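Trying the structure run again after the queue cleared.
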Amino acid sequence: MNQREPAPTERPVGLTIAGSDSGGGAGIQADIQTMAAHDVFATSAVTSVTAQHTRGVTASTVLDPEDVTAQLDAVFDDFAVGAAKTGMLGTEPVVRAVADRLAEADLPVVVDPVMVATSGDRLLSDGAEAAYEALISEAALVTPNTDEAAVLTGIEPTDEASAQQAGEALVELGADAALVTGGHLPGDDIVDVLVTREGVETIRHSRISGAATHGSGCTLSAAVTANLARGFEMETAVREAIAFVERALRYYQNVGEGPGAVHHMVGVRNDAAASATLQAVESVVDELVAADVSALVPEVGMNVVGALPFAETTDEVAAVDGRITRLHGGVRPNGGVRFGASSHVARFLLAAREEATDLRFAANCRLDDDVEAALEGLDWRVAAYDRDAQPEPDEEGNTMQWGARQVFGAAAEDDRPVAVLDHGALGKEPMCKVVAPTPETLVDRVLGLHDALDDTLGE
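Done. Tokens:
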């Protein structure tokens, strides 16, 4: 067999300077996974070794500063590092050694000041906390939570205004920018405040109740570092990183006996499912066309949609471009299947997934008295929503999203509907949305409704 020529690839290089977490949820392990998920090659300098799992830390050993410096020298001697981050540093000598070495490097540094445990316990001595001033002066970005911001600045963030004040104080200490994260503050929304020398940006996103948050700070700072290594501007790097962490928290990994772990590779797993999801929607369309479901196709057309496993936007939902329409003697799709091809049905499915994440496929069907009679003959859980009860007007199809939230949010997990009825309004055609966790189940349900409708019409 002939030898093959190598085909090397090039990727940006990131550096993490942090502690090791044997549980894999935080520290070096989280940083490396996060950088890999962003297509960045991760180098590292270990500052401490911890024995921990999803339930807590059982032991910790901090390395000598000389050992940390030796790792940094080795990395900088051989790699063109595009950006670096610091995490758990442990002691004042290590903080000062890292600050001194990074001062010699010409690259953006993200400082995650790991100072306060989730329990509220201080993780550093007073001397080590004071030593952070030198590190902050070298930082492109500092990413404290509210507790850490209070330690660093003496300003305790309790709301957006005080978080901004703390961020401004960190910039005055020499950082180019500060991101004060609001996860520790109460409220349904999390408000993260990004302060730069040019101004202030407020980033709001939904709180995810019950998620595994251990390591989320590490993951956020690593994601920003990876984005900076890829050449992103600071605001974009931060916003993309926050969106990444939000998804990684919502679809956290249920491992260990504790709360679980952040899903660092969630985006990679999502992308990997794209081809299979497209093929799944195509297979559903082929079966519905072969069965000639003309009687179920609405005047506006039918669409079949399939969401990626961890979909958050309509661009991550595959659908028929131009929908499926009735013809003389059958039905046909007006275009191929692609991501982002559906608006209303895709948003309905995403809203339903807020309460039932196992749902991945849906189709919209005609709704009239005959279809309702057919549904009554099926052993299905059927629900409906009343457009008149919607508190805001229907703009860009938000009634479908609102209706899905009403229906699925009110249903117990074992009593969620298979079909959701929207009886329409002036200028809005009535519709029946059928949902399913798999493409095979969606086909069975739509064809089951079609057969029931045939029986109803034949009576």
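The longest strand covers residues 41-53. Worth checking whether this holds up in the mutant runs.
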